[in-house]
Amino acid sequence: MSESNDRLRDVFRAAGRRLTPQRRLILEVLEESDEHLDAEALHDQAKIHDPDISLATVYRTLAVLKEMGLVEEHHLGEDHSHYEAVRDGPHYHFTCLGCGKVIEFDTPLIAQVKQELSEREGVRVIGAHLHLSGYCAQCQAKKAGGQGSNEE
Amino acid sequence: MSESNDRLRDVFRAAGRRLTPQRRLILEVLEESDEHLDAEALHDQAKIHDPDISLATVYRTLAVLKEMGLVEEHHLGEDHSHYEAVRDGPHYHFTCLGCGKVIEFDTPLIAQVKQELSEREGVRVIGAHLHLSGYCAQCQAKKAGGQGSNEE
DNA sequence: TTGCTAATGCAAATCATTCTCAATAAGAAG
DNA sequence: CTTCTTATTGAGAATGATTTGCATTAGCAA
Questions:
Q1: Is B105 in contact with A122 (Cβ distance < 8 A)?
Q2: How far is CA A22 from CA A29, A68, A144, B104, in A?
Q3: For residues B108 and B91, what is the distance between their CA atoms, to the nearest angstrom?
Q4: pLDDT tens across A14-33, in order?
Q5: Architecture of the A1-86 domain
Q6: Which pLDDT tens digit goes with each residue over B83-128?
Q7: Coil, strand or helix: which one is B107?
Q8: Which CATH number is A88-152 given?
Q9: Which residues touch strand D (CB under 7 A)?
Q10: Can you tell me which residue has its alpha carbon closest to the C1' of nucleotide D28?
Q11: Which nucleotides of C are covered by protein (CB under 7 A)?
């Protein structure tokens, strides 16, 4: 317990930052969640383990983690942000306009788009967000079948 | 002037909405702008022609136009929204993290991604937002050349 | 022209996010 | 293990964007 515990601390030290229990907690909650949490949901989850953690700290930590590349911010709905721990490679999102479900996917085609744009415009591409929207299979069936609305 | 004037009105009527001078003005400002205006900039522009138009009306109209498919909303920077009149086909954005410049581009590869995802997941894709970020040619040169910072 | 009701302007209200500041605690140094 | 420096925290006020309530105005169908 005295050795593996310091991996994350080293990452923070390398970034010239301090590893606090709050930061560790916030990152853990994000990593253990399958969802794309927003700041408030994240705060709620974190409060289970540390009832005193403040929303301001959540936002501040999110900014730090984002800067360190450990977390990504997404604008999925129309309003506020959602956050996600960076696991493997980049991936993209599809949101169902009917039920709100989010499907994650990946595709090499985006790398091609980056390549294409880099050559055409001379830019250096660092980040890519792709957000598709439409209707999932279930919601299509629902609309086609009957006009009964049993979904909010 | 008594005939072409009603094109837009018909579009509104078909949507069960009223065409007001304010709505016409807001759409005109958006259509005549090359930029991706935010609500406040749009309000400023609109006030030139109608000093009494309110910011609330700008937001309300933007929502209506978006719903009618005449306008698109983008999250380009990190904070508030920018709006753009829908002209032709879909197109995508690159934002320079150095100077904030926005480059618009199009690519058939996104259509491929849609196709791919539709087949794989059975979804029906309606909208697509692709937002790349990085550094434009000038900002790369600036960073490489000297450390002189002449840019905010 | 009339009447119904959507749309407007204004100001107050919300919502998400950031900031201020005194108190606390991480981590480097001794 | 104690000390010191200063980044980080919690609480709440502040900010900025967007929305809403309400009384008034004005589209547009009849």
A1: no
A2: 11, 16, 48, 40
A3: 10
A4: 999 999 999 999 999 999 99
A5: Orthogonal Bundle (1.10)
A6: 999 887 668 999 998 888 889 899 989 999 998 999 899 999 998 9
A7: coil
A8: 3.30.1490.190
A9: A 17-18, 20, 22-23, 50, 52-57, 60-61, 64; B 9, 12-13, 18-21, 38-40, 55-56, 59-60, 63, 79-81
A10: B18
A11: 6-12, 15-20, 25-28
